[in-house]
Amino acid sequence: MPETQIQINESLMDKLVAEKTAANELQKRKHEDWNDNYELYRNKVKTNRLTQRQAVNIPLMKETIKTILSKIDDAPNAEWKEMGGNEDKELIYQEIWDAALRENKLELIDILDKKNVLLYGLSAKKLNIGDTGVSINVLDVYDIVYDPLMSASDSETAKFIIHQNIFRSIREILADDRYAKNGKDELMSWVNSEPGLTQSEENKKNWELKMERLKDMGVDHQDFSLFVGGDRLVNLTEHYTNIWNIKKKEWERKVVVYADDHVELLNETLMDLTGVDFWPFIVWSEDPEINDIYPDSVADLVRTPNKVLNVWFSQMIENRTLKNFQMHWFLPGQNYTPQTYTPGPGVMLPAPPGDDINKVIKPVEISGLDDTLTAISALTQIVERGTGATAIEKGQPEKGVQTLGEVQILVGKAMERSIGIAKFYKMAWHETCWKWDKLMHANAPKILKLYKTSRTGKIYSKKIYASDWKSTAGYEPMIRSSSEQEQESLKTIQKFMFLLAQFPNNEALRKIAQKRMLESVDLSSEELKQVESSEEKQQQQPQQQEQEQSPQGFAEIQNKMGELAALSR
């Protein structure tokens, strides 16, 4: 029996390593392009003796990425609807989501997610189960690899998804109750062996490279300084895969965690670990391809022109440097030995006696590159047309005279491309919310503490139990970006203004329009009360004036009638 179990484990590890190798081979073809995109974005330039001798970079990559990112940087808002119509549960669930939004810094995660897509073509978020619910993290594109046969439009079609390069110390692994004891014992034997020691040093180098890349991308983490004390590092892999269940005679989704591609630490079904049967990953891109799960990115379009611009700019600087050297040709002779000099006012320079100086010494002619800036401008415009990040979108005026209509057309075209990207990340966020909801119901925290701010600014806390928000009917997320909501509210106000012009004396319509306008502005409840109170006072003043004037008018009418009666007598 033990021999059979060992053979099964060995065959499983062989299967896992084979899947990991195939997935990494598919991704490696993109690494060179990804590294170039990242270095150009970070203003890192590789010099060489032939084409680019100066370490200069025109920040075309950074300004293009940041311009597009500024158009899509609004994090989508999720509005939860309880399918059974229970408004109390719907309200509580919305507060739970809003609290998770703040605690997990989902706005920052959303920005990093979009930046990954713009730089590398795709991005992945991972859902993790914790004591207070489900958290969302964006992954380094190098750390997640996929089944080569996975559909680019649906990550659930993947037979396996691998989260690799999870670096942990030996102490962390030994203290984790999720891992099997025999796996921990085998790990201790492995790390103390000669191959294990070599692998540990390699793991530490890979960790340092990964942390440097994450810091450069703007991500800070509390574990960055964890391993500076010489702790032994282990490279863990979370392998999500399909394995045939002989007893049930069906494919079963499993999670296998192993160290350094040798030691198995955990082997459980996905259902037992998470309570759901879908992959806890959300993968998306802004330019999906049918035949390739690694599509082209915006940065791929900018990379080659940016390199060309750097070469041209470097050559122009090199030429100016050579001109500034003021090198000269000279005819060597017995009567003249040229010498260097220090420039300064009143400096006298020796000349060859008896000879024409123009025949003995001559400046080295260095042809100028006067058309370089023109060529750079032309190439930049080509990139702008391809990416939609025009000069106007970057905050720079276009050269030449342009009409207002032409400017509006350029801005409109750029906005259309931004809206095209927004469609894809809204779909990704809908999938994120859907999976988050299912994981929350399957792993509901017993107690959650929520906080609410009153009108006076005082903060109140309340304990929320699972029965307060769990729904048998389920929830449906409605995804909207804040910019879309603002645009819709503006359109609504414009419609109300049109209706008020058609029905100027309709008091009910006027009150409804005023209420909608105030709702579109971020006013506190106290401020809303002040506005409504002031409006009521203004409406009461004309009514009082009419009432004061009406008795006087009635008295005048009576006097006139009395005068008429006297005349008739």
Automatic annotation (TrEMBL):
<feature type="compositionally biased region" description="Basic and acidic residues">
    <location>
        <begin position="526"/>
        <end position="538"/>
    </location>
</feature>
<feature type="region of interest" description="Disordered">
    <location>
        <begin position="526"/>
        <end position="569"/>
    </location>
</feature>
<dbReference type="Pfam" id="PF23899">
    <property type="entry name" value="SU10_portal"/>
</dbReference>
<keyword id="KW-0175">Coiled coil</keyword>
<dbReference type="InterPro" id="IPR056909">
    <property type="entry name" value="SU10_portal"/>
</dbReference>
<feature type="compositionally biased region" description="Low complexity">
    <location>
        <begin position="539"/>
        <end position="552"/>
    </location>
</feature>
<feature type="coiled-coil region">
    <location>
        <begin position="9"/>
        <end position="44"/>
    </location>
</feature>
<protein>
    <recommendedName>
        <fullName>Portal protein</fullName>
    </recommendedName>
</protein>
